[in-house]
What we know:
Elements: H1 14-23, H2 28-39, E1 48-51, E2 58-63, E3 80-87, E4 95-103, E5 110-115, E6 122-130, E7 133-134, E8 138-141, E9 153-158, H3 169-175, E10 182-185, H4 220-230, H5 234-242, E11 244-247, H6 291-305, E12 326-330, E13 334-338, E14 352-353, E15 356-357, H7 371-382, E16 388-393, H8 423-435, E17 439-444, E18 450-456, E19 468-474, H9 483-487, H10 490-503, E20 507-511, E21 516-522, E22 526-535, E23 553-563, E24 570-573, E25 584-585, H11 596-604
Parallel strand pairs: 1-11, 6-25, 9-10, 10-11, 13-16, 16-17, 17-19
Antiparallel strand pairs: 1-2, 2-5, 3-4, 3-6, 6-7, 6-8, 9-21, 12-13, 14-15, 18-19, 18-20, 21-22, 22-23, 23-24
Helix pairs in contact: 3-5, 4-6, 7-8
Amino acid sequence: METPLSRRTMLKGGAVAAAALTLGGLTTEEARATVDETARSGVFGFGIASGDPTATELLLWTRVTPSPDATPGSGRGRRTRVIWAVAADPGFRKIVRIGTTTTDASRDHTVKVVVSGLTPYTRYYYRFAACGAISGIGRTQTAPDEPGRTHALRLAFVSCSNYTGGYFTAYRGLAARDDLDFVLHLGDYLYEYGNDEDRYGPAELAGVRDHQPATEVVTLADYRLRHALYKTDPDLREAHRRQPWIVVFDDHEITNDAYDTGAENHETQDDPDTSYTGPGQPAGTRPEGDFLARRALAFQAYLEWMPIREPGSWQPQPHQGTQFFRRFSFGDLAELSVIETRQNRSQQVPTTAASTLNPALTDPARHLPEPQQLDWLTRGITGSSKAWHLVGNQTVLTRVYALPRAGVLPGQVFNTDQWDGYQADQRALLDAMAAGRTDPVVLTGDIHSSWANDLPRDTTRYPLDRNSVGVEFVCPSVTSNGFKESLGSAATAQAATAAFQAVNPWVRYLEGIGHGFTVLDVTPARVQADFFFIRSGGDKGLLVDPRLDPQATVGYETSYVSTKGSRQVTGPAGQLGRRSDEPRTASVPRGGWRDVVEFERAAASTR
């Protein structure tokens, strides 16, 4: 979610002045060199990660710097041999899998390996070796997915982590937890904006947390460098090292409010706006080029730098473009369908047209996911025999009406970038939820605030007939501006959220001040969402901005529940306790490498 202002009018006053003073006369190339030197702290300076866990497989990720000139986005550096290993213990005395791969400048020296033949619901440790150096040790685990057995399932979900928006305290809170099966990132992992007139975030952090490259990202080198910058953050690196992640992008990994053929934050040759002058760009130029070419570069960098399986190599389904949607299984307890809603969506439309509600909002020819993906999702829900079907989703699904005020028509929705802007698809999904035997739980990001929603098929009957076909939990942003920042004060934000709930009573909980993450715990009897906010001196943002505090902490806020069969939200509830069971310790297969000395010898051979 962004403010309604165009980026071309988003002058930030003091923030812009501070950024200009900080950058001085640096060219884009000099700024890149500066961040590269700061970021690089050895062969594995950008950290290690794991992702997309199944019962028997894990994906491992890293990025190597084989020589001083092989900086992110540079296109330089030699082809490099990389050894990886998976062990049953953090001391690597019991190595269960080991292998070798190579990387080079064509993929920005990133490394991805899918390790198979592992044991379900088991804790593992991993590391890499290259150029005679050995990485840190990562912790990960396979999915609790065993037929006929019900294990605990607990995950955290996050979204909207803007580097210039504040310190990544929420990631530090995730790294500190020992009770998560995985972290689900629902998009806006990074932001495309620069440090000048399009800077986004508190003015106080200009010159302290600046984006690199200094301008909006457009080229492949830009996107690679921006990904590298985010992975210089120690809290984000530690969260990746300590937990497996499941990730999907939203718009800012490409550019704001992206749709199938363009975006709000993209100028093409047909764009009449010629007023923008970026650093190093003469007035009247259009530096952003063809949108589809730009998007392809963003996808390439995302696939290089994120712990996600290569599209088409796993769970292929009919689709349009590149398939990012996929499904995870957790025994007889739950499934998780991760969807992607930017690549093929129809362009957003205004809420009203000629003083009437815009008929395009209900046009069945307009889509959020492409029809093939929506069919895959609805079939997954209606055909599931598991207790719960979780949906990892980018934008708010439940209907959200605008606050009544001058110029707002009855029935006008709040935001057409959400599912409300694509009401035929919204209806199809709600109908599938009503028809299925499983209880649907939608996990959403994007809107920089915390929600717990019923999902009524017919809002006109609510609350006399709650007719809810599922529930939706929305996580707060990691750092991106919420209601308080957009509206100017905590008091105004609180008044606005209360008014929103009055107009939309199926929104059972709404909080627009806190930043942080949400933990979801799933049992056969219920799902529970615990909301956690970052705090500075105990304050979640009422009086101070905890995003500005590098020593901020994470604290529990509240919980909401949906019991099996109810398809409704209740709460608040008490905080979660311990898991009902724990992942097992890995055993060593016969013939497996058993000693860290063997790995160190192999590492030495990569010099």
